C-alpha cells in the first residue's frame, strides 16, 4: 500500500514539476528507470516470499541505478554506449520477467 | 618442479583434484541470471535473522526509506515520459524533414535517370550518325580515289607499251622532236586505248600540257630532254596495232618518216607511272560552293 502510494506520489510530482533533463543525463535516465524497476520487482517478490527487508531494497535500488548508469557512461566513453545499453536492458529485462513470473505464481498460485 | 608433480603426487595436490568448481562458474549465464533474478541479499538477511532467532513477522512491511525509493522511481519514470513526450514533436519534425529530403532526392534521382535515358538516346543517335558519316566518308574516299585514277592524279601501274623517241641522229634543227610531235603521239596513244600516259615520268592529264620553250620541250611546265620515253598503260596486245590505225597515229608515223625521228616501241608487263602534279585552280568554282568565303575560295583541285 505504502509502495503504491509512493509510486503515485512520485509520478504526480514528476508530472507536476517536469524538470528539464540536462542533455548529459538524457542517455542514463531511461536505463536508471529500468534498473529501478528491476529492484522494485525484486522487492515485490521478496515481499511476497516474506523475506523483504527495507535496507536491502534501498541498497539494491540505489546500487542498481548507479551501476546501470555507470555501465552506460563507460560505454559512452568507449564508443560502445548503445551496445552496452542494449546489454544492460537485456539482462535487467530477463530479471524483471523472471521476477514477474515468480510474483504471478504467488498471486495466482499458478 | 614439473617432474615432482608428474612423478609422485604430493599430499597438497589431493584436495585440488577433488575440489569442484563453484556453481556460479559452471552455470550458464542466462540460467544464472534467471535463477538469481531476486537479489540474494534478501535470502541472506532472512537467513541471518533466522539464525539469530529474531522472530519477525512473516511479511515485513516497507518503511519510509522504501517509500522514498519508490517515489524516486515514480519521479524518474514520469520525468523520462515527459521528456520523451516533449521530444516527440521535434523527432516528428526531423522525421518529416527527412521524409521531405528523401522525396526531393527521389525527384532528383528520377530527373537524373530521365537525363541518363535522354543522353543514352542522344548518344545512340550520334553513334548512328557517326556510322553513317563514316560510311559516306568511305564512299567519298572511294569516289575520290576513282576520280584520281581516271584523271591522272594518282600513281598507277599496269601493262603497256614503252616508246622511246629521239631526234634524228645529227645536229640539225629540222630533225628535233617538237611539242606538237609528242602531243600527236600522246593523242594517238589515248585514241588507241591507252589509259595513262607519261613522258619522261611526267604524267599527262587534262591540266598538263606539252609546250616548246625555244628548243626545249616542257611537259607539265617541267623541261624534258631527248631521248623521250613515252610510257602508256593499255592493252599491250592491241595498243601498238591500233596506234597505227588511228588518225593521230598515222600523222605521227608520217612525221617519223618525214623527219627521221628515232622510234622504238616495246611491250612491258608492268609500267609504273607517277601522279600528275597538282595545279592550283584560280578561276574554277564548284557549282554548289560559295563563290566567296567558302571552301572553294582558292579554287579546288579536281
Automatic annotation (TrEMBL), chain A:
InterPro entries with a match to the protein in the record: DUF1290
Transmembrane segments: 27-44, 56-74, 80-98
Main location group: membrane
Compartment annotation: Cell membrane
Lineage start: Bacteria, Bacillati, Actinomycetota, Actinomycetes, Propionibacteriales
Pfam family membership, one: DUF1290
Coiled-coil residue windows: none
Protein's organism: Nocardioides cavernae
Listed name of the protein: DUF1290 domain-containing protein
Amino acid at each position: 500500500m505504502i509502495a503504491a502510494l509512493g509510486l503515485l506520489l512520485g509520478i504526480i510530482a514528476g508530472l507536476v514539476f517536469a524538470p528539464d533533463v540536462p542533455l548529459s543525463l538524457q542517455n542514463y535516465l531511461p536505463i536508471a528507470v529500468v534498473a529501478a524497476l528491476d529492484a522494485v520487482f525484486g522487492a515485490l517478490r521478496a515481499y511476497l516470499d516474506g523475506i523483504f527487508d527495507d535496507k536491502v531494497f534501498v541498497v539494491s535500488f540505489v546500487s542498481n541505478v548507479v551501476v546501470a548508469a555507470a555501465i552506460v557512461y563507460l560505454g559512452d566513453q568507449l564508443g560502445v554506449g548503445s551496445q552496452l545499453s542494449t546489454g544492460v536492458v537485456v539482462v535487467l529485462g530477463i530479471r524483471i520477467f523472471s521476477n514477474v513470473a515468480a510474483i504471478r505464481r504467488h498471486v495466482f498460485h499458478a | 618442479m614439473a617432474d615432482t608433480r608428474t612423478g609422485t603426487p604430493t599430499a597438497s595436490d589431493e584436495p585440488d583434484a577433488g575440489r569442484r568448481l563453484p556453481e556460479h562458474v559452471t552455470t550458464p549465464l542466462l540460467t544464472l541470471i534467471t535463477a538469481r533474478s531476486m537479489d540474494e541479499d534478501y535470502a541472506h538477511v532472512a537467513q541471518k535473522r533466522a539464525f539469530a532467532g529474531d522472530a519477525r513477522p512473516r511479511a515485513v512491511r516497507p518503511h519510509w526509506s522504501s517509500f522514498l525509493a519508490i517515489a524516486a522511481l515514480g519521479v524518474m519514470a514520469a520525468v523520462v515520459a515527459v521528456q520523451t513526450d516533449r521530444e516527440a514533436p521535434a523527432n516528428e519534425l526531423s522525421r518529416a524533414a527527412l521524409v521531405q529530403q528523401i522525396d526531393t532526392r527521389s525527384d532528383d534521382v528520377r530527373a537524373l535517370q530521365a537525363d541518363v535515358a535522354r543522353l543514352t538516346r542522344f548518344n545512340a543517335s550520334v553513334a548512328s550518325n557517326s556510322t553513317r558519316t563514316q560510311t559516306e566518308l568511305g564512299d567519298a574516299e572511294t569516289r575520290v580515289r576513282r576520280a584520281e585514277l581516271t584523271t591522272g592524279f594518282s600513281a598507277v601501274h599496269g601493262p603497256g607499251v614503252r616508246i622511246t623517241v629521239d631526234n634524228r641522229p645529227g645536229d640539225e634543227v629540222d630533225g628535233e622532236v617538237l611539242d606538237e610531235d609528242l602531243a600527236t603521239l600522246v593523242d594517238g596513244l589515248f585514241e588507241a586505248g591507252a589509259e595513262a600516259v607519261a613522258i619522261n615520268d611526267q604524267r599527262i592529264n587534262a591540266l598538263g600540257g606539252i609546250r616548246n620553250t625555244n628548243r626545249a620541250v616542257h611537259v607539265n611546265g617541267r623541261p624534258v630532254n631527248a631521248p623521250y620515253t613515252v610510257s602508256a598503260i593499255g592493252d599491250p596486245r592491241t595498243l601498238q596495232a591500233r596506234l597505227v590505225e588511228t588518225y593521230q597515229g598515222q600523222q605521227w608515223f608520217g612525221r617519223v618518216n618525214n623527219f627521221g625521228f628515232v622510234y622504238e616501241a616495246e611491250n612491258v608487263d608492268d609500267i609504273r607511272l607517277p601522279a600528275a602534279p597538282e595545279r592550283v585552280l584560280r578561276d574554277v568554282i564548284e557549282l554548289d560552293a560559295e563563290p566567296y568565303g567558302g571552301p572553294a575560295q582558292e579554287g579546288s583541285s579536281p
